[in-house]
Amino acid sequence: MHEESPDTIHGRMKEGAHLAGYGLSRAMDNLKWLLEGERFKELSAGYADVNEFLRGTEPAFKLLRIDPKERKQIAALVKELQPDASQRAIADMVGASDKTIGKDLGAEYSAPKDEIIEEITIPAAEKSAPLPWTTDDGFDPGAKGRREQRRREREAERYVGEAAPLPDDKYRVVYADPPWKYREHGVSEDAGYGSTKFHYNSMTTEEIAQLPIGNLVDDNAVLFIWVTSPKLNEVWKIIDAWGFEYKTSFVWDKIRHNFGYYNSVRHEFLLVCGRGQSTPDAKKLYDSVQQIDRSEVHSEKPEEFREIIDALYTYGKRLELFARSKRDGWDTWGDEL
Which CATH architecture has domain 171-333? Predict the structure, then answer.
Protein backbone atom coordinates (compact mmCIF):
# COMPACT_ATOMS: atom_id res chain seq x y z
CA MET A 1 0.00 0.00 0.00
CA HIS A 2 2.89 2.35 0.77
CA GLU A 3 3.98 2.15 -2.87
CA GLU A 4 0.65 3.55 -4.02
CA SER A 5 -0.23 7.21 -4.18
CA PRO A 6 -2.58 8.90 -1.69
CA ASP A 7 -5.03 9.51 -4.56
CA THR A 8 -5.12 5.79 -5.37
CA ILE A 9 -5.72 4.86 -1.73
CA HIS A 10 -8.39 7.52 -1.33
CA GLY A 11 -10.15 6.47 -4.53
CA ARG A 12 -10.21 2.87 -3.37
CA MET A 13 -11.74 3.95 -0.07
CA LYS A 14 -14.53 5.90 -1.74
CA GLU A 15 -15.41 3.15 -4.22
CA GLY A 16 -14.34 0.12 -2.19
CA ALA A 17 -17.85 -0.93 -1.17
CA HIS A 18 -18.48 -1.72 -4.84
CA LEU A 19 -15.35 -3.91 -5.12
CA ALA A 20 -15.35 -7.63 -4.38
CA GLY A 21 -13.45 -8.48 -1.20
CA TYR A 22 -13.23 -4.91 0.04
CA GLY A 23 -14.45 -4.62 3.63
CA LEU A 24 -14.23 -2.51 6.76
CA SER A 25 -10.78 -3.77 7.73
CA ARG A 26 -9.24 -2.57 4.46
CA ALA A 27 -11.15 0.69 4.61
CA MET A 28 -9.80 1.40 8.11
CA ASP A 29 -6.27 0.50 7.03
CA ASN A 30 -6.58 2.93 4.13
CA LEU A 31 -8.01 5.64 6.39
CA LYS A 32 -5.25 5.14 8.96
CA TRP A 33 -2.55 5.41 6.30
CA LEU A 34 -4.00 8.66 4.94
CA LEU A 35 -4.36 10.20 8.41
CA GLU A 36 -0.85 9.24 9.57
CA GLY A 37 1.58 11.97 8.75
CA GLU A 38 -1.32 13.94 7.25
CA ARG A 39 -0.91 12.22 3.90
CA PHE A 40 -4.44 13.40 3.05
CA LYS A 41 -2.88 16.82 2.41
CA GLU A 42 -1.10 15.32 -0.60
CA LEU A 43 -4.39 14.46 -2.32
CA SER A 44 -5.09 16.24 -5.59
CA ALA A 45 -8.47 17.33 -4.20
CA GLY A 46 -6.54 19.85 -2.12
CA TYR A 47 -8.20 19.33 1.25
CA ALA A 48 -7.33 22.25 3.53
CA ASP A 49 -7.68 20.33 6.80
CA VAL A 50 -8.68 16.99 8.26
CA ASN A 51 -12.35 17.90 8.56
CA GLU A 52 -12.61 18.74 4.88
CA PHE A 53 -10.89 15.45 4.08
CA LEU A 54 -13.26 13.41 6.26
CA ARG A 55 -16.29 14.94 4.56
CA GLY A 56 -14.72 14.22 1.19
CA THR A 57 -14.39 10.57 2.24
CA GLU A 58 -18.07 10.39 3.22
CA PRO A 59 -19.38 7.64 0.91
CA ALA A 60 -16.79 5.07 1.99
CA PHE A 61 -18.11 4.01 5.40
CA LYS A 62 -21.77 4.71 4.69
CA LEU A 63 -21.76 2.17 1.88
CA LEU A 64 -20.08 -0.45 4.08
CA ARG A 65 -23.08 -0.40 6.44
CA ILE A 66 -21.07 -0.32 9.66
CA ASP A 67 -22.59 -1.31 12.99
CA PRO A 68 -22.37 0.74 16.24
CA LYS A 69 -19.24 -1.05 17.50
CA GLU A 70 -17.44 -0.47 14.20
CA ARG A 71 -18.56 3.17 14.15
CA LYS A 72 -16.97 3.69 17.58
CA GLN A 73 -13.72 2.11 16.36
CA ILE A 74 -13.62 4.47 13.38
CA ALA A 75 -14.32 7.54 15.53
CA ALA A 76 -11.63 6.52 18.03
CA LEU A 77 -9.08 5.91 15.24
CA VAL A 78 -9.69 9.33 13.71
CA LYS A 79 -9.40 11.18 17.04
CA GLU A 80 -6.28 9.25 17.99
CA LEU A 81 -4.47 10.15 14.76
CA GLN A 82 -6.01 13.59 14.22
CA PRO A 83 -7.15 15.16 17.54
CA ASP A 84 -8.35 18.27 15.69
CA ALA A 85 -10.97 16.28 13.78
CA SER A 86 -14.44 17.52 14.70
CA GLN A 87 -17.34 15.35 15.82
CA ARG A 88 -19.42 16.83 13.00
CA ALA A 89 -16.90 15.81 10.32
CA ILE A 90 -16.61 12.27 11.69
CA ALA A 91 -20.42 12.08 11.86
CA ASP A 92 -20.71 13.18 8.24
CA MET A 93 -18.17 10.59 7.16
CA VAL A 94 -19.90 7.61 8.78
CA GLY A 95 -23.48 8.79 8.29
CA ALA A 96 -24.33 9.32 11.97
CA SER A 97 -25.42 12.31 14.03
CA ASP A 98 -23.10 14.70 15.82
CA LYS A 99 -24.67 13.62 19.12
CA THR A 100 -24.10 9.93 18.37
CA ILE A 101 -20.41 10.47 17.62
CA GLY A 102 -20.11 12.57 20.78
CA LYS A 103 -21.42 9.62 22.78
CA ASP A 104 -19.10 7.25 20.94
CA LEU A 105 -16.08 9.38 21.73
CA GLY A 106 -17.21 9.83 25.29
CA ALA A 107 -16.97 6.08 25.70
CA GLU A 108 -13.44 6.10 24.32
CA TYR A 109 -12.09 9.30 25.84
CA SER A 110 -12.51 10.38 29.46
CA ALA A 111 -12.70 13.98 30.59
CA PRO A 112 -10.11 15.23 33.14
CA LYS A 113 -10.67 13.70 36.57
CA ASP A 114 -11.77 16.94 38.24
CA GLU A 115 -14.40 17.47 35.54
CA ILE A 116 -15.77 13.97 36.03
CA ILE A 117 -16.07 14.42 39.78
CA GLU A 118 -17.91 17.68 39.31
CA GLU A 119 -20.21 16.18 36.70
CA ILE A 120 -21.34 13.14 38.72
CA THR A 121 -21.64 14.75 42.15
CA ILE A 122 -25.13 13.90 43.43
CA PRO A 123 -26.89 15.84 46.21
CA ALA A 124 -27.42 13.69 49.32
CA ALA A 125 -31.20 14.01 49.02
CA GLU A 126 -31.09 12.38 45.60
CA LYS A 127 -28.72 9.49 46.37
CA SER A 128 -31.57 7.19 47.27
CA ALA A 129 -33.39 7.78 43.96
CA PRO A 130 -33.92 4.62 41.86
CA LEU A 131 -31.44 3.87 39.12
CA PRO A 132 -32.57 5.16 35.69
CA TRP A 133 -33.24 1.64 34.39
CA THR A 134 -35.45 0.58 37.32
CA THR A 135 -39.12 1.22 37.98
CA ASP A 136 -40.29 3.28 40.95
CA ASP A 137 -40.33 0.19 43.16
CA GLY A 138 -36.76 -0.69 42.21
CA PHE A 139 -37.67 -3.52 39.83
CA ASP A 140 -35.22 -4.01 36.95
CA PRO A 141 -37.24 -4.64 33.74
CA GLY A 142 -34.30 -6.32 32.08
CA ALA A 143 -32.35 -5.55 28.90
CA LYS A 144 -35.44 -5.20 26.71
CA GLY A 145 -36.99 -2.72 29.10
CA ARG A 146 -33.79 -0.70 29.34
CA ARG A 147 -33.53 -0.57 25.52
CA GLU A 148 -37.11 0.69 25.33
CA GLN A 149 -36.39 3.40 27.90
CA ARG A 150 -33.28 4.51 26.01
CA ARG A 151 -35.31 4.59 22.78
CA ARG A 152 -37.91 6.84 24.39
CA GLU A 153 -35.20 9.12 25.79
CA ARG A 154 -33.66 9.44 22.32
CA GLU A 155 -37.08 10.23 20.86
CA ALA A 156 -37.54 13.00 23.44
CA GLU A 157 -34.07 14.42 22.71
CA ARG A 158 -34.78 14.59 18.98
CA TYR A 159 -37.75 16.88 19.46
CA VAL A 160 -36.10 19.40 21.78
CA GLY A 161 -35.78 21.82 18.87
CA GLU A 162 -39.18 22.15 17.24
CA ALA A 163 -40.19 24.07 14.14
CA ALA A 164 -41.69 27.53 14.47
CA PRO A 165 -45.48 27.82 14.11
CA LEU A 166 -46.79 27.50 10.57
CA PRO A 167 -47.15 30.84 8.77
CA ASP A 168 -50.47 32.66 8.80
CA ASP A 169 -50.88 33.38 5.10
CA LYS A 170 -52.34 32.03 1.86
CA TYR A 171 -50.14 30.39 -0.76
CA ARG A 172 -50.53 29.48 -4.40
CA VAL A 173 -47.50 27.16 -4.59
CA VAL A 174 -46.49 24.65 -1.91
CA TYR A 175 -43.32 22.53 -2.12
CA ALA A 176 -42.93 19.74 0.46
CA ASP A 177 -40.24 17.18 1.23
CA PRO A 178 -41.83 15.25 4.13
CA PRO A 179 -39.56 13.67 6.77
CA TRP A 180 -40.97 10.19 6.25
CA LYS A 181 -40.61 7.69 9.07
CA TYR A 182 -39.46 4.25 7.93
CA ARG A 183 -39.42 0.96 9.79
CA GLU A 184 -35.95 0.33 8.37
CA HIS A 185 -35.81 -3.44 8.81
CA GLY A 186 -32.24 -4.68 8.74
CA VAL A 187 -30.81 -1.29 9.70
CA SER A 188 -29.48 -1.22 13.26
CA GLU A 189 -31.22 1.29 15.51
CA ASP A 190 -27.83 2.82 16.30
CA ALA A 191 -26.34 2.50 12.82
CA GLY A 192 -25.93 5.56 10.69
CA TYR A 193 -26.18 4.02 7.24
CA GLY A 194 -29.47 4.64 5.54
CA SER A 195 -31.25 5.53 8.76
CA THR A 196 -33.25 8.76 8.62
CA LYS A 197 -33.18 9.17 12.39
CA PHE A 198 -29.54 10.28 12.23
CA HIS A 199 -30.25 13.05 9.74
CA TYR A 200 -33.59 14.65 10.62
CA ASN A 201 -36.64 14.34 12.85
CA SER A 202 -39.02 11.98 11.09
CA MET A 203 -42.83 12.01 11.25
CA THR A 204 -45.49 9.38 10.73
CA THR A 205 -47.86 9.67 7.79
CA GLU A 206 -50.67 10.54 10.21
CA GLU A 207 -48.62 13.35 11.79
CA ILE A 208 -47.84 14.83 8.38
CA ALA A 209 -51.46 14.58 7.24
CA GLN A 210 -52.66 16.36 10.38
CA LEU A 211 -50.73 19.52 9.56
CA PRO A 212 -53.35 22.16 8.62
CA ILE A 213 -51.85 22.88 5.20
CA GLY A 214 -55.29 23.08 3.61
CA ASN A 215 -55.90 26.26 5.61
CA LEU A 216 -52.76 27.89 4.18
CA VAL A 217 -53.46 27.58 0.46
CA ASP A 218 -55.52 29.56 -2.04
CA ASP A 219 -58.61 28.11 -3.69
CA ASN A 220 -56.45 27.75 -6.80
CA ALA A 221 -53.13 26.20 -5.78
CA VAL A 222 -50.55 23.55 -6.62
CA LEU A 223 -48.65 21.16 -4.38
CA PHE A 224 -45.32 19.53 -5.25
CA ILE A 225 -44.60 16.73 -2.77
CA TRP A 226 -41.65 14.32 -2.66
CA VAL A 227 -42.23 10.64 -2.00
CA THR A 228 -40.15 7.47 -2.18
CA SER A 229 -41.43 4.18 -3.56
CA PRO A 230 -42.10 2.59 -0.12
CA LYS A 231 -44.38 5.50 0.78
CA LEU A 232 -46.42 5.68 -2.43
CA ASN A 233 -49.38 3.94 -0.85
CA GLU A 234 -49.37 6.41 2.06
CA VAL A 235 -48.81 9.75 0.36
CA TRP A 236 -52.37 9.81 -0.97
CA LYS A 237 -53.64 10.23 2.60
CA ILE A 238 -51.60 13.41 2.92
CA ILE A 239 -52.63 14.78 -0.46
CA ASP A 240 -56.28 14.22 0.39
CA ALA A 241 -55.99 15.60 3.93
CA TRP A 242 -54.37 18.79 2.63
CA GLY A 243 -57.18 19.30 0.11
CA PHE A 244 -55.39 18.46 -3.16
CA GLU A 245 -55.87 16.00 -6.01
CA TYR A 246 -53.07 14.11 -7.74
CA LYS A 247 -52.35 15.32 -11.30
CA THR A 248 -49.00 13.99 -12.53
CA SER A 249 -45.41 13.37 -11.44
CA PHE A 250 -41.75 13.98 -12.07
CA VAL A 251 -39.18 11.25 -11.58
CA TRP A 252 -35.75 12.16 -10.24
CA ASP A 253 -33.17 9.75 -11.64
CA LYS A 254 -30.28 10.06 -9.17
CA ILE A 255 -27.83 8.30 -11.54
CA ARG A 256 -25.94 6.75 -8.60
CA HIS A 257 -27.55 3.86 -6.78
CA ASN A 258 -28.63 3.86 -3.15
CA PHE A 259 -29.67 1.42 -0.44
CA GLY A 260 -32.82 -0.68 -0.97
CA TYR A 261 -34.38 -3.97 0.13
CA TYR A 262 -35.83 -5.23 -3.16
CA ASN A 263 -33.67 -3.41 -5.70
CA SER A 264 -30.92 -0.84 -5.90
CA VAL A 265 -32.83 2.42 -5.64
CA ARG A 266 -31.87 5.38 -7.80
CA HIS A 267 -35.08 7.41 -8.11
CA GLU A 268 -37.70 9.40 -6.19
CA PHE A 269 -41.05 10.84 -7.21
CA LEU A 270 -42.11 14.48 -7.11
CA LEU A 271 -45.90 14.37 -7.30
CA VAL A 272 -47.81 17.33 -8.73
CA CYS A 273 -51.20 17.90 -7.10
CA GLY A 274 -53.81 20.54 -7.79
CA ARG A 275 -56.56 22.44 -6.01
CA GLY A 276 -59.03 24.36 -8.15
CA GLN A 277 -57.33 25.83 -11.22
CA SER A 278 -53.75 24.59 -10.97
CA THR A 279 -52.34 24.33 -14.48
CA PRO A 280 -48.98 26.03 -15.02
CA ASP A 281 -48.64 29.62 -16.23
CA ALA A 282 -45.84 28.70 -18.64
CA LYS A 283 -46.48 26.62 -21.74
CA LYS A 284 -43.13 24.85 -21.71
CA LEU A 285 -43.34 21.12 -21.01
CA TYR A 286 -40.41 19.81 -18.98
CA ASP A 287 -39.22 16.23 -19.27
CA SER A 288 -40.98 14.15 -16.61
CA VAL A 289 -37.73 12.28 -15.91
CA GLN A 290 -34.89 14.47 -14.67
CA GLN A 291 -31.42 12.89 -14.57
CA ILE A 292 -29.45 14.72 -11.87
CA ASP A 293 -26.63 13.26 -9.81
CA ARG A 294 -27.50 13.11 -6.12
CA SER A 295 -25.39 14.95 -3.57
CA GLU A 296 -23.74 13.34 -0.54
CA VAL A 297 -26.14 15.13 1.84
CA HIS A 298 -28.79 12.72 3.07
CA SER A 299 -32.18 13.30 1.33
CA GLU A 300 -31.10 16.63 -0.19
CA LYS A 301 -33.13 17.42 -3.33
CA PRO A 302 -31.66 19.07 -6.44
CA GLU A 303 -32.19 22.81 -6.78
CA GLU A 304 -33.16 22.21 -10.41
CA PHE A 305 -36.63 21.09 -9.33
CA ARG A 306 -37.30 24.35 -7.55
CA GLU A 307 -36.18 26.17 -10.71
CA ILE A 308 -38.70 24.14 -12.72
CA ILE A 309 -41.45 25.09 -10.26
CA ASP A 310 -40.53 28.77 -10.43
CA ALA A 311 -40.51 28.62 -14.23
CA LEU A 312 -43.91 26.92 -14.44
CA TYR A 313 -45.68 29.08 -11.83
CA THR A 314 -44.62 32.66 -12.39
CA TYR A 315 -46.64 34.48 -9.73
CA GLY A 316 -48.25 34.00 -6.33
CA LYS A 317 -46.91 33.40 -2.84
CA ARG A 318 -44.97 30.19 -2.38
CA LEU A 319 -44.20 28.08 0.69
CA GLU A 320 -41.62 25.34 1.24
CA LEU A 321 -42.48 22.85 3.98
CA PHE A 322 -39.80 20.94 5.91
CA ALA A 323 -37.20 23.30 4.47
CA ARG A 324 -33.51 23.10 5.36
CA SER A 325 -32.55 26.60 4.29
CA LYS A 326 -34.19 29.90 3.38
CA ARG A 327 -34.76 30.81 -0.28
CA ASP A 328 -35.35 34.13 -2.00
CA GLY A 329 -38.97 34.51 -3.04
CA TRP A 330 -40.14 31.66 -0.80
CA ASP A 331 -41.53 31.45 2.73
CA THR A 332 -39.98 28.49 4.51
CA TRP A 333 -41.00 26.31 7.44
CA GLY A 334 -39.19 23.44 9.18
CA ASP A 335 -37.19 22.48 12.25
CA GLU A 336 -33.83 22.60 10.44
CA LEU A 337 -33.93 26.34 9.67
Answer: 3-Layer(aba) Sandwich (3.40)
